[in-house]
Amino acid sequence: MRPDDWVERWLPRSWGPYARLCRLDRPVGTWLTLLPCLAALVQAAGGWPTLWRLFIFSLGALLMRGIGCTINDIFDRDFDRRVERTRFRPLTSGQISLRQALYFLFGQLVVCALLLLAINAYSRWLALLLLPFVVVYPLCKRFTYWPQVVLGIAFNWGMLMAWSDTRDMVPLAGIAMWVGAVLWQVGYDSIYAYVDVRDDLELGLHSTAMRFADNGKLWISGFYVATMLLWLYAGVALHMAWGYYLVMAVIAAHFVWQMLLFSLQRPDRSFMLFRANIWVGVLMIVAALGGTLLG
């Protein structure tokens, strides 16, 4: 957290801890949640989705990411006090109390519940099914080396809802795009997890980085290859035009670039590579547009 950022300069002092609790000052996660969802909206609509649907899903992504971060900090408050990178978070540093954090969480959930009125019945049920994944994710690192899988399921759930709200069904190709996005997230979040391996070992927590150990590049490359195969299959099943495959080739090249730069001996690169996946999300939208509008 930087003391001179926009939260410090523009928001009332009493609002700052809540903005940081839901990571408004760290929008990378929000973009990584939203961009694949927008790509799915384009594919489901066969072109440009409605502005109303874009607004609802964008707000939903922002809120659900904030809810997930709030729940994470509530569960991990005792661990965060013992890690240099996280000990200044609002809950661990005493800027807000546990009760205040719970009230804030409840408020976010209420607003999300109101958003359910703007989507169809199928999508409401899918939204309710998402909540257990959001709640259980922070606990997964206590008993499994695969918490990134649960995170990927939750982060990319909006892709399924994009189809269900637009078409009132989720085709197999839409599920393939979603599974591909889950595997993509396991890959890029594992890169990020290598930054925290030492702290996780001391705290008795688990992650895919600890599971992969020295074979991280091989494992992550495998997840990226599986992602590309699923996305290519979905493109064929959805009858995407040539523009889709052209952009998919660019995404594949981007994955190769990531693996060339990724190094277990250079953890300073990991966060940069993690952030670079925002461009993959942007390219997913471009691919969806190229595949639907150039046919």
TrEMBL record:
Its EC number is 2.5.1.39. PROSITE patterns: UBIA (PS00943). One of its GO terms (cellular component) is plasma membrane. One of its GO terms (molecular function) is 4-hydroxybenzoate polyprenyltransferase activity. The keyword Protein transport does not apply. The chain crosses the membrane at residues 54-75, 96-116, 122-140, 145-163, 175-195, 216-236, 242-264, 276-294. It catalyses: all-trans-octaprenyl diphosphate + 4-hydroxybenzoate = 4-hydroxy-3-(all-trans-octaprenyl)benzoate + diphosphate. Belongs to the UbiA prenyltransferase family. This is 4-hydroxybenzoate octaprenyltransferase. It comes from Candidimonas nitroreducens. The lineage of its organism: Bacteria, Pseudomonadati, Pseudomonadota, Betaproteobacteria, Burkholderiales.
